[in-house]
Amino acid sequence: MAKTYDLILKGGIVVNQDGEGPRDLGVTAGRIAEIGDLSRASAGEIVDCRGLHILPGVIDSHVHFREPGLTHKEDLESGSRAAVMGGVTAVFEMPNTNPATTDDAALADKVTRAHHRMHCDFAFYMGATRENTKDLAELERLPGCAGVKVFMGSSTGSLLIEDDDGVRNVLKAIHRRAAFHSEDEYRLRERMDLRVEGDPRSHPVWRDVTAALTCTKRLIALARETGKRVHVLHVTSKEEMEFLAGHKDVASAEVTPTHLTLAAPECYERLGTFAQLNPPIRDETHRDGLWLGLQQGVVDSLGSDHSPHTREEKSHPYPKTHSGMTGVQTLVPVMLDHVNAGRLSLARFVDLASAGPARLFGIACKGRIAAGFDADFTVVDLKRRETIRNGWIVSRVGWTPYDGVSVTGWPVGTFVRGCCVMWNGELLASGQGEAVRFLEALRPVH
Ligand code: DOR
Ligand code: ZN
Q1: Is the pTM of this model over 0.85?
Q2: 305 included as an active-site residue
Q3: CA-CA distance, 207 to 282, in Å (whole number)?
Q4: Which structural domain range is residue 395 located in?
Q5: Confidence (pLDDT) at 221
C-alpha cells in the first residue's frame, strides 16, 4: 500500500540541518511526517516545488504590530498578513502597544485577539517595568509569551528601565533569556541638543555608537553578575559586535536586514526621515562590521524590527518624526538578495532566521525541517528577480524603504503547520495563527 499524507511538497531542494538536496516532504496533521523520496506516496494535496528551495519557516523574532491602541499604524491581522506575504511563518511581537504588554491580562488579551485571526504563528514579549519586576518569573512563562523585553533606552512608547539596579532586579527575577533595546538613556538625554532640526543625518550623531556600546557593556556586566542570558537586539556598530564576540556565553546578538543593507549618509539623503529608526542606521564602517560579525558567527538571529508608522507621522520635520520602518514583508527578499550577492550562504540564512530563534528562545517543534516538527515552510525562488514596490506592501502604512529596489530571490510560498497560506503572492487561507510553544514553559495537558 502506498503511503498517504495530507500534503506532499514534491521535487523541491530542501535546506536543512543535513545540508541542501532534493527531497520530498510529507505532511500529516500539520506536522512533518516524512522527508525523502515520496514518489510512490499519495496525498490530499501535492504541491509542485521543482526549481524551488524549501526552507524551515522563517521566524521573525522582532516585530511591532501595534494592537491594541495604535491600530491606525498596523494590527495583528494586517501585520501578520504582511509576514506571510513575505514568507514569514511566525513572529514575536513587542510590548510597546497601548496599553503596553506588562501583565497577564494584557498578554492574554493579545493572545485572544491573535488566535485564528493572525495569519502566522505568534508569541508576545512581556515588557519589563519597575512595577512588574517581581512578577516577571511567572509572566515570562505564560502561554504565548516569548520572554521579557527591556528598553534600557527610550524609544517609541514609555517602557523604560534605564538604571543598573532596575536591570539587575529584572535579571535576578527571570529565568528565560530576555531581549534588550540597548542604548544608554543617560547619554541619550545628555546629547538631545545634537539633533539638528530638519536634518535626520543628525539622528546617529545624537544616538551615537558610544550610547549603544556603553549600554551593551553595562548589560553584559549585569548578565555575568546575575548568571543570566541576554539577547541584544538590533546591534548597530562594529564596536559592539567586536565586544559581543568576547561574551558569547551570556549574550546572543540580533541584527536587522535594515542595518545590513542601508548606510549613512546615503540613506538619510535618499529617504530622509523615512530612514530614521532606533538605534540608528550608521555609516559603512559599521555596516561592514555587522557583516563581519555575521560571517564570523557572532550574530545569532535576524529580526526585522518591523515598526510601522504612517507616512504622515514620518513626514514631520526631524526630530518631531517617529522612529521606525516596515520590514517583516521584506526580510526574506532582502536577505535572499544578499545570499545571491554572496554575502552569506543560504544555510547561514536558515541558521539566522529559523534555527537561531528556535535555539535562543527554546521554541518547541519549529525552526528545522525534521519529522515531528511543525510543517512550517518558506518556499523561495532563488533566481526570481523582482522589484520591491510600495504597492506590494500590505502593512497598513503601505510603504517600505526598499520601494523601487530590485532583488534576486523571492518568497513564493508560505506554509504554516501544513496549511498553504500564501502561494505566488496570493493569500490562500483565513487566519489560523496559533501561539508558539516554548520548552521552558511547556504545560501539562489535562
Ligand atoms: O525605531 C524604533 N521603532 N525603535 C524602537 O525601539 C521602537 C520602534 C517602534 O516601536 O516604533
Ligand atoms: Zn523594535
Answers
A1: yes
A2: yes
A3: 10
A4: 4-54+371-427
A5: 98
